[in-house]
Amino acid sequence: MKFVVLIASILYATFNFGQTLTDVVNIQNITYSQSTPDNRANGMSFYDFDEDGWDDLTLPMNNDSILFYKNVNGNFQQIGSYVDAIGYVKQILWVDYDNDLDLDICISYEDAGIQLYQNDGAFNFTDITVAAGISNVPFIAYGFSFADPDTDGDLDLYVCTHEIIGQVVSPEPNKYYENQGNGTFIEKAQMLNIDNGIQPTFMPVWFDYNNDHLLDLGLINDKEFWNDALYQNMGNGTYQDVATAVGISNDSHNPMSLSIADFNNDGYQDIFKTDIGNDVIVNGYAMDYKLYRNNSGVNFTDVAQNLDLDTNIFAWGALWVDYNNDCFEDLYISTTLGIGYSSLLYRNNNGQSFDLMNDSINGNTVNSSFCPVKGDIDNNGFYDIVVLNDNAIPNVLLNSGNANNYIKIDLRGTQSNQKGIGSTIEVYTNGEHQTQTVFCGNGLCAQNSQHKIFGAGSATNVDSLIVTFPSGIVVRKFDLGVNTNHLVIEQATEVLDLNQGTNIIYACVGEQFEFGVSGLYNYQWNTGSQDSIITVQSQGSYSFEATNFAGDTLYISSPLYVYYEPLLTYQEVINQPPCGALNNGSIDLFLNPASIVFEVYWSNGNQGALNNNLSAGNYSYTILTNGNCQYSGSIIIANAPSFTVQYITTPVTDTSLGSADLFIWGGVAPYTFTLAGDTVNSPITDLSAGNHEVIVTDAYGCADTVLFTINDMSAASASETIIGVAKIYYNEEYVWVCDIKTNDIQHIEVFDMLGTLILDKHNWETDADKNCRIKMLESAASGLYRVVVTHDSFVKSTTIFVR
User: Fold this and answer.
1) 10 Å Cβ neighbour count for 764?
2) How far apart are CA 455 and CA 432, in angstroms?
3) Torsions phi, psi of 8, nearest 5?
4) Is residue 367 a contact partner of residue 69, using CB atoms and an 8 Å limit?
């Protein structure tokens, strides 16, 4: 979403080269100023209290109506007050303490303790302090903070008292009000040993210093007579003060701001504390600032001097703010006491050092300044800073921005508190790992915008966003666009199995699958589909996220990888049985790629790519691959059909040579005729009288040798006998071959028109009376048949008959 930038900010920016922070308080018509008793600091809120996406301002007024400035498209407009202050205001927080999705107000007072106001949802506020179980007995209250350290889903309240023995008749320790989840609280500070005794405490901050996913409690105590505290949450309902053990007790100092951030992007929260400075030495200690670097949650080291932050100026509040969106938290420090010092803006140099950047500020920041807070006035993705001053109007420092990118994040709790207070947000982008905690009260009586901005530098996307809610639920988002706003909803996560226990499917070419789970909402597949069920037809990884209707459970499917086998190609090589061989055929399958083939199964029971010793028949095969894909086919093996050759000859005469006309039954054309080594055509002409031998070969290479005689009918051999053609008779059982010289016959054979031998030469009976040979015809089918009679002289005569 793009927003209009204030024209005023553009005009101011033209006076400077580079990024600027320009005070636009006058343009914004904010004329408010305050006067605090004893010049002791208080704070303000830069929280979007109407949750319209534009950060609003809430300013303290002592014994008067609290001031509310609504942000209307980048312009602040004062609206009617919702509550009246009953004393000297120290801190104001917007908080949804009862998890009813509207923001309530809590205020601490220097002279009236603390008050809690409930919002009815229409911005009508009722003081429910006593009804909620919170004491209304006046005491000197200072900073307070809401969090959920017991992770029961509601916000507890820790309140600091600034009371000292001898200055107050009955001084009170700090208070810890445990939220009972029903709109009431029970005070348990002493029971849990976190009341801090009788000490003047300025500010509590809940944060997880050792990354054990439990919120610990940091406290700063005023005056040089006391030390600071860090109560480690042990996770079993108890706490231990480890401040001295980890090196942040800050003995005999005057800390006034407890500001938490991960300034060096190592994933652990660091601590900054202001002090009174001014070269003051108390009990041998210089009252300078402290920057405690977190050493992986084990202990802390003060590196302020090493990183050029050992400033010796009286300061109240300090604000960590990545004002230039370079992925590193910079630091704004509010100085005070009218000594002529400007507040301080330090740029963080990649966590290695800090440079003072006050030249980037256009405006008068030489004030008695108390509390700096951050928000985004014009929604340009760069934090602006508002500073609460004493006896002066606030500084409203509008950020001109630069070319760097950002991502803006809001949280919505479902099992945790609805604003996600106490959550940890991690952003990985531009080679950096940024970490921020969602506070409700930190620094010095400060409340910053709930719309968290993370700088992205020159990166064009955010690699990952990880939010750990107080409940322990972790929400992860990946590959997010920059310069965008994201609402992260706390969702219990359930992992779905798309394929019943296995995350790999081996698929065959052409197969398709349907994956998904119906009945959920807001589907988002990694393919971009938003359907509940998708059809998969290509190789890849498939997963989705979806929610239930309430949006408080996120269903994540385990990635399912679909692997498509390569297409198997194969060639059939067929070797038919040679002539006369009944079972010597073969089929060979050439497979590519052969590596994916598990086995080849044949219908005759053989296995393997080669199927041999085959007789005539139909052979089907199934190729099974490693991925259980199947390819199939069938092949016909045909025995090379035998053939017979018959001939009709013409004799040699006085006028011409003889010839032989060959007739073939069976076999496979074309046929080759070889006579005396030469290839000839049928009929064969120019044959001399005598015996001849012709080799006939068909297309399968089958061969038959034909012997025939060319008779000499010339005058010289006129005495030779001419053999006639037989007469054929038949009935259902027998066939008679008659009118032949039975004593000149070698044998008789009967063929069908395909050349198949029907009756062989054996067992013909002789009927001498009728001059016939007889044989049982058996069950020959109807059709044409050839009767071939071979005579003693090897002359063959052929007769055709129809049955």
Assistant:
1) 19
2) 10
3) -60, -40
4) no
pTM summary value: 0.69
Quote the Cα angle for 755-760-763, to 5°.
165
The CATH number assigned to the domain holding 499 equals 2.60.40.10
- 398 vs 401: CA distance, rounded Å: 9
Q: What is the signed CA dihedral for 476, 480, 482, 485, rounded to 10 degrees?
A: -60
Radius of gyration over every alpha carbon of the chain, rounded to an integer in angstroms: 52
Query: Computed from CA positions of residues 622, 624, 625, 631, in that sequence, does the dihedral angle turn out positive or negative?
Result: positive
Rounded-to-integer distance, Cα 558 and Cα 264, Å = 35
Distance CA 613, CA 621 (A): 16
What are 152's two structure tokens?
Answer: 């029961």
Q: Is residue 457 part of a domain?
A: no
Q: Which helix (H) or strand (E) segment is 631 a member of? A: strand 630-637
- Nearest to residue 326, comparing CAs of 409, 401, 408? 401
Amino acid at 374: K
**Could you report the per-residue pLDDT of 77-119, keeping only the tens digit for each?**
999 999 999 999 999 999 999 999 999 999 999 999 999 999 9
- The pLDDT, as a whole number, for residue 148 is 98
Give pLDDT, residue 418. Answer: 96
In a domain, 468, yes or no: no
- CATH number of domain containing 333: 2.130.10.10
Map tokens 């991960």 to a residue. 262
- The pLDDT assigned to 14 comes to 35
Residues 379 and 515 in one domain: no
| Residue 717: DSSP 8-state | G
Q: How far is Cα 82 from Cα 49, in angstroms, rounded to an integer? A: 11
* Contact indicator for 398, 16 with CB cutoff of 8 Å: no
As averages over each run of 10 residues, the pLDDT of the chain (803 residues) reads 30 53 97 87 98 98 96 98 97 98 98 97 98 96 98 98 91 97 97 97 98 98 90 97 97 93 98 86 81 98 92 92 98 81 94 96 93 99 98 97 98 95 98 98 98 98 96 92 96 84 88 92 95 94 91 88 93 81 85 95 96 91 94 87 79 88 84 92 91 88 85 61 59 76 75 74 78 77 75 68 66
Q: Write the CA distances from 95 to 49, 98, 421, integer angstroms.
A: 9, 9, 9
Provide the pLDDT for residue 6.
Answer: 29
Strands 484-489 and 315-321 turn out to be unpaired
3-state SS assignment for residue 517: coil
Pairing of strands 492-496, 553-557: parallel
Residue 472, both tokens: 């322990």
**Count of structural domains within the chain:** 5
The single-letter code of the amino acid at 44 is M
CA distance 346 to 261: 14
Same domain, 730 and 710: no
257, 729, 765, 781, 785 from 734: Cα distances, Å: 128, 8, 11, 13, 14
Question: Is 443 part of a structural domain of the chain?
Answer: no
What pLDDT score does 242 carry?
98
Residues contacting residue 295 through CB under 8 Å, at least 6 positions apart: 268, 301
All residues at 6 or more sequence positions from 23 whose CB lies less than 8 Å from its CB, including other chains: 361, 362, 363, 364, 365, 395, 396, 397, 398
Shared domain for 519 and 543, answered yes or no, is: yes
Task: Report which DSSP code applies to 165.
Answer: B
